[in-house]
Structure formats: C-alpha cells, structure tokens
C-alpha cells in the first residue's frame, strides 16, 4: 500500500473527457447506480485514489469549502460537501442525509448523492449514487491510516456497527493487515447475526458477534467505529494499549463514538483539522471541556502520507484516526467513476 511522490503530482491522471455530440452540445446527465460504483472501484484503485486526494489536499491543490450542515427539527440532518481538484475538469457536490432513527425501520440511516458538474460551463454531467462510493472511499482512507499507524502484528479486528461502512471496512482491514479474527457488535441482536452471516461469506477468517461494544474494544488490536451514535460507545479505559482506532461514523457536533478518556489516551490524526474542531463531536466536546487542546491533534492524514516521520509511535501508544469525510475524496472518486462511464 505504499506510494511514491510521483503519484501525487498527476492530479489529472484520469480526467473526465466531457461528453458532447457532433454539434458540440453536452449530452444528457448520466445516472450512475450503486451497482455501477461497486463494479468500477476495486480496493487497489480506491486506495490509490484516496492517497492521491489526501496528498493533493495537503499540497493545497484543492478548492474545498468547509462542509456545511443543518438538522431539521424532528427530522434528518443534511451535509453539503463541494470540492474541486486542480487539473480536473469536474466539480463535485455531495449531499448527505442522516437520520439514526431510520435504522429502527427499513430505511438506511445515511444516504448520499454526488452531483458532478463541468468545472468550466457549470453544466451537470452526472449524478452518482453516493452510498457505496462513500463507504468505499472511507474504508480506503482507514486502510491508509491503518497502514501508517497500526502495528504489523495485528490479530484481532473489532467493528462496532453493522451497516454499509462496516462491510466496506471489513474488506479493507483484511487487506491492510493479517487479521485472524473479526469481532462485531451492534445493539440489535438481529443486526449482529445478519452481519456475521453475511460477513462470513466474504471473510477468510472467522467472524464473531459480541454482547457488548466494550468487549469488542477490549479484545481488538484494530478497532473500527462505524455508527451514528450520539453518546460514547464504551469506556475509553477499555481500549488496550497499542490499539489503533478508525473512528469514521458520527460526525455531528452533538454526536460522538469515543469518550474523553480515549481521546486523551490517544495519538490523534484527523482527515481535516479545520473540519474536526468545527463539526466532530468526538473532538469538539473534549475541547469545550478543556480536556484537550487543538495541539492534541498531531497531524492530518494527508500530511502524514507525505511525511510519515511526523509521528513516532511507541509500543504502548493508542492511535486514533478520526474522519468525517472530505469533499476532495468525493471529487477524486466521482471524477474517476464518471470518466470510466464516458469512455465506455
């Protein structure tokens, strides 16, 4: 999973060739389904795209306004994530809706669509179903962080959450490390059982359901938190020394998956410092408590990819990668996916 600096320089390696007819008029807007995204994005390509996106962002080669969001009283929360990468002919805007109450029924708790535009004319080119793309690019981000921060001797993978992100992270973590077992927890027994049943069909190692989040945290060497929880999932003291945590779920100011104890115990890396201190409850709440300062964040992932020596990890250190998602990831991934369909 290592890469060279040359990868980072070519931001337009797979640019979208804008689709026109014989008169030079843009063709109709293309709709790209979840299944299309799945067929297009392999794990190896996804890690390459994520690495490129983070490195370009660290080199200040992207336009990426701070994510905006609001919550409808008694309803869902909405995120809006625009971005443009220098050298690409597209601009992407992702719209995400989040409603944790949906998991009590048949609706997904999170749903996303990515709108892709011609960066020069502003014409809409494509609408990309965003749920699978979001899960894949987030799992690729966690794979990069795990490759940099987790110890090689990693046996047990813990996953808290059983949604789309959990499945994507299962596959990504199995690629990133030599895992021998997977432990999973969800408050819903039915969801735990369904995850074990489905995951066992795609995992080469055994997958076990645990009875508590704390048990998963206590027994894992690499831990994935993939929920929309509004309160910490477990006591921070339960996490064993030397663990690496990918916290990629809840990212609203009022939501958190980790408690202050875990944050204080950890070496903390984020996807975006500006976004983390403004919108991630996992970080905002300890900051407001005065338990940590902004300097507790040791690096952004893009900075770490360019210079891994920023962090010198010791044997007993706990590392945390906290991510809420970046528009630049959506822009790079969506541009690549759309390019494949216009070429076909």
- Count all strands and give the number: 15
Report strand %: 15-25%
Shape estimate: globular
Strand sequence of the main sheet, in spatial order?
10-9-8-11-12-15-13-14
Quickly count the helices.
Answer: 12
Major sheet description? 8 strands, parallel
Please identify the top-level CATH class of the largest domain.
Alpha Beta
Radius of gyration: 19 Å
Give helix and strand order, one letter per element, not per position. HEHHEEEEEEHEHEHEHEEHEHHEHEH
What is the terminal separation in angstroms? 28 Å
What proportion of the residues is helical, as a percent range?
A: 25-40%
Q: Helix/strand-derived class?
A: alpha/beta
The CATH homologous superfamily name of the largest domain equals NAD(P)-binding Rossmann-like Domain
Give the averaged pLDDT, no decimals: 91
CATH architecture of the largest domain: 3-Layer(aba) Sandwich
Total tally of structural domains: 2
Q: Detail the poorly predicted runs.
A: 2-13
CATH topology of the largest domain: Rossmann fold
Task: Explain the overall architecture.
By secondary structure, the chain is α/β, with parallel strands linked by helices. It folds into two domains: 5-133 and 328-343, ornithine cyclodeaminase, domain 1, CATH 3.30.1780.10; 135-325, 3-Layer(aba) Sandwich (Rossmann fold). 37% of the residues lie in helices and 22% in strands. The protein contains twelve helices and 15 strands. It has helices at residues 5-9, 34-40, 43-58, 130-149, 164-176, 189-202, 213-219, 260-265, 273-279, 281-289, 301-306, 327-343, and strands spanning 30-32, 62-63, 68-71, 77-85, 90-98, 110-118, 124-129, 156-160, 181-185, 207-209, 222-225, 244-247, 266-270, 297-300, 318-322. It has an eight-stranded parallel sheet, with helices on both faces. Strands 1, 2, 3, 4, 5, 6 and 7 form a seven-stranded mixed sheet that branches. Helix 9 crosses helix 10 (281-289). It is globular and about 55 Å long. 48% of the residues are buried. The model is unreliable at 2-13 (pLDDT under 50).
């Amino acid at each position: 999973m290592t890469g060279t600096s040359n990868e980072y320089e070519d931001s337009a390696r797979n640019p979208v060739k804008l689709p026109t007819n014989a008169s030079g008029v843009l063709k109709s807007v293309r709709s790209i389904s979840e299944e299309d995204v799945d067929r297009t994005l392999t794990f190896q390509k996804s890690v390459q795209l994520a690495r490129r996106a983070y490195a370009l962002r660290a080199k200040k080669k992207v336009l990426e306004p701070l994510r905006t969001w609001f919550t409808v009283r008694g309803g869902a929360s909405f995120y809006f994530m625009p971005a443009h990468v220098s050298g690409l002919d597209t601009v992407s805007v992702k719209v995400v809706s989040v409603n944790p109450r949906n998991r009590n029924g048949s609706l997904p708790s999170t749903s996303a669509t990515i709108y892709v535009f011609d960066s020069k004319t502003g014409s809409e080119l494509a609408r990309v179903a965003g749920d699978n793309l979001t899960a894949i690019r987030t799992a690729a981000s966690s794979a990069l962080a795990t490759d940099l921060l987790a110890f090689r001797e990693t046996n047990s993978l813990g996953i808290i959450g059983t949604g789309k992100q959990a499945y994507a992270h299962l596959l990504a973590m199995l690629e990133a490390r030599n895992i021998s077992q997977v432990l999973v927890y969800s408050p819903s027994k039915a969801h735990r059982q369904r995850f074990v049943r489905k995951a066992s069909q795609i995992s080469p190692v055994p997958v076990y359901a645990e009875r508590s989040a704390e048990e998963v945290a206590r027994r894992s060497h690499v831990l994935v938190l993939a929920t929309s929880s509004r309160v910490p999932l477990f006591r921070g003291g339960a996490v064993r020394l030397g663990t690496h945590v990918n916290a990629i779920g809840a990212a609203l100011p009022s939501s958190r998956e980790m408690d202050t104890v875990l944050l204080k115990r950890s070496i903390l890396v984020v996807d975006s410092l500006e976004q983390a201190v403004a919108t991630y409850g996992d970080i905002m709440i300890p900051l407001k408590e005065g338990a940590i300062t902004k300097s507790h964040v040791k690096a952004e992932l893009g900075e770490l990819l360019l210079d891994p020596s920023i962090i010198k990890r010791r044997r007993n250190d706990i590392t945390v990668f906290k991510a809420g998602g970046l528009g630049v990831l959506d822009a790079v991934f969506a541009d690549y996916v759309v390019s494949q369909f216009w070429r076909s």
